[in-house]
Specification:
Length: 327
């Protein structure tokens, strides 16, 4: 039976601030009301070989003020342990998410299991990344890599060639895999998400693949329940030595978030001209684990999304925490 859990979000009104932060309505849209109403209604069930068990409701974070200097058009921050939503902006507004898409690709591979499965890289994977202008992990056609290896290439180097290779193997075929992505999103309650590719590249149009901060919070929570996923996304690089049937590889993490922010443990960055700078992130400090999303941070610099995430997390980690109320 597929386990089903829900983000146990507590009711929280998001104040309208000078930075353009919009409050939520009771239905999760702009207006006045609960910032957690929409997210609390979304199930986070996934089919898994060995996901981490959902964590129980714990201490309550006392929200005061809002983060400063955040330029992202869409954003959300929550306590990863309890699901309490702390702050949001444009949380139900659909936007392209660029390479954050690859988190769903990875999740489907993890659900399928058998990470030791050997997969041959085709010339078509190399051509695919080149044709659509995607990031490449530099995979060599003819190399035989494990699914685990390819997940490193997908999540760290953000390789469109790795996404193509995994999608065609696990679909089997690209159309079948994309159908599985959308089915998984619907099953998880990601009602404002649609996938047209396994990588977030801007085709057939810039906005064909889209999501919202609220939906990506669900996706991030689901993926981070897998130890295999966590062990990949908190690395600054991964080295695969040359072995029987494959070349040697060195894949750097395309995001500077891991390694630059104290306590960062992942998750995935992305960028296209229309999506702007995007980041799905998680960090741990002093026993508190926060997860969040920024979408469409203006291109003020290469690390625009990381800067926004830093500002949001610094605010979140600075909030006071009290014991949970007794039922």
């Amino acid at each position: 039976m597929r386990p089903k859990t829900r983000i146990a979000a507590l009711a929280l009104a998001v104040a309208v601030a000078g930075g353009g932060v919009a409050a939520w309505s009771a239905t999760g849209g702009p207006g006045g009301g609960s910032a957690s109403a929409h997210i609390a209604a979304n199930p986070r069930g996934t089919r898994a070989a060995s996901p981490r068990k959902p964590r129980p409701t714990g201490p309550v974070i006392q929200v005061a003020g809002t983060p400063n200097g955040v330029k992202a058009k869409g954003a959300v921050l929550a306590d990863a342990a309890t699901g309490q939503v702390l702050w949001g902006r444009g949380v139900d507004t659909e936007r392209p998410m660029a390479s954050i898409t690859k988190v769903m690709t990875a999740l489907l591979v993890l659900q399928a299991g058998d990470l030791g499965r050997e997969i041959r890289v085709t010339k078509a994977a190399q051509t695919y990344a080149w044709k659509y202008g995607g990031e490449s992990a530099g995979l060599h056609p003819g190399d035989v890599l494990t699914a685990q290896d390819l997940l490193n290439a997908l999540l760290l180097a953000s390789g469109a060639d790795a996404a193509y290779t995994l999608a065609t193997a696990y679909g089997p075929g690209m159309p079948a895999f994309i159908a599985k992505m959308n089915a998984a999103a619907a099953r998880m309650g990601m009602t404002h998400t649609h996938f047209a590719s396994p990588d977030g590249l801007p085709y057939p149009t810039e906005t064909s693949t889209y999501s919202t901060p609220a939906d990506l919070l669900i996706l991030g929570q689901a993926a981070m329940r897998y130890p295999a996923f966590r062990s990949i996304v908190d690395q600054q690089f991964f080295q695969l030595k040359k072995g029987p049937g494959h070349h040697k590889y060195w894949w750097d993490n395309t995001s500077s978030f891991v390694g630059s922010y104290q306590g960062a443990v992942g998750i995935k960055d992305g960028f296209t001209d229309d999506a702007g700078h995007c980041l799905l992130f998680e960090a741990v400090r002093n026993g508190r684990e926060l997860i969040g999303v920024v979408l469409d941070s203006p291109a003020t610099g290469f690390d625009a999304a990381v800067h926004d995430a830093d500002q949001i997390l610094n605010w979140g980690f600075g909030l006071r925490q009290t014991a949970a109320a007794t039922p």
